Amino acid sequence: MTNKYRRARKKRKKWWPYLLSFFLLVVLGSGIGAYLAKPSLFSGLQFWKAKKTAVTTPSSSKKKKEKSDLPAVSTKDWQLILVNRDNVKPELNPQLTDVDAIKVDSRIVEPTRQFLEAARKIAPEETLISGYRSVAEQTELYNERVAQLEASGLSHEEAEKQVQTQVQVPGASEHQTGLAIDMSVEAGQSDELGLQLAAIAPQYGFVLRYPDGKSNITGVNFENWHFRYVGVENAQYMAKHQLVLEEYIQLLKKAGK
């Protein structure tokens, strides 16, 4: 081997360390670059995730615009006055007018007449048997019923407990509002007939006030003859959703009405 060949070979060997160093620098630089790029990549993913969520999730303002089927009424409206054992009222002294020899609040005279006329098309003997009753009259009725049960052998406490399933204590009866009517036939109303009347009642603004299966809410057992005026819009909503007045008032309060 000549000296010239040895010198050329030694010269080529000197490049390998430089090439190796350059390669290592490239690899190291790529790793550092990928590491530094992670936060921005992560941020980008978060942005698209947030964007997707914003598109698929309805905004709160849109939810507020959704219309409720609750009538545009207030719990303070006169026809929605709530009278029961939890809402005892003093004498209300409403202005009264006779309908079929029964007194009712003058504001519901026409709806009462129309309802009675419609009821008589179903049962000609249908008649109004009770309307407005003062607190004084309710007190007399209540005490009379209690006395009758006491005479049968019940204690005063037992008699009151039994009476209160059908007769409200003084101050807790809807009859003192003039907005409640009792409608029946002379021989006594069958449940079937009572339900037929309940079905047409909302057309005239009335509801069956003490329906079957709601005594745990109203505090009064099923009465197929007792109807309460609440206004057509309210009555139709209550009938559609099978609500008694206590439930309806609570629903309106939750809605801020």
From TrEMBL:
<dbReference type="GO" id="GO:0008233">
    <property type="term" value="F:peptidase activity"/>
</dbReference>
<dbReference type="Pfam" id="PF02557">
    <property type="entry name" value="VanY"/>
</dbReference>
<dbReference type="InterPro" id="IPR058193">
    <property type="entry name" value="VanY/YodJ_core_dom"/>
</dbReference>
<dbReference type="InterPro" id="IPR009045">
    <property type="entry name" value="Zn_M74/Hedgehog-like"/>
</dbReference>
<protein>
    <submittedName>
        <fullName>M15 family metallopeptidase</fullName>
    </submittedName>
</protein>
<dbReference type="GO" id="GO:0006508">
    <property type="term" value="P:proteolysis"/>
</dbReference>
<dbReference type="InterPro" id="IPR003709">
    <property type="entry name" value="VanY-like_core_dom"/>
</dbReference>
<feature type="domain" description="D-alanyl-D-alanine carboxypeptidase-like core">
    <location>
        <begin position="102"/>
        <end position="231"/>
    </location>
</feature>
<dbReference type="InterPro" id="IPR052179">
    <property type="entry name" value="DD-CPase-like"/>
</dbReference>
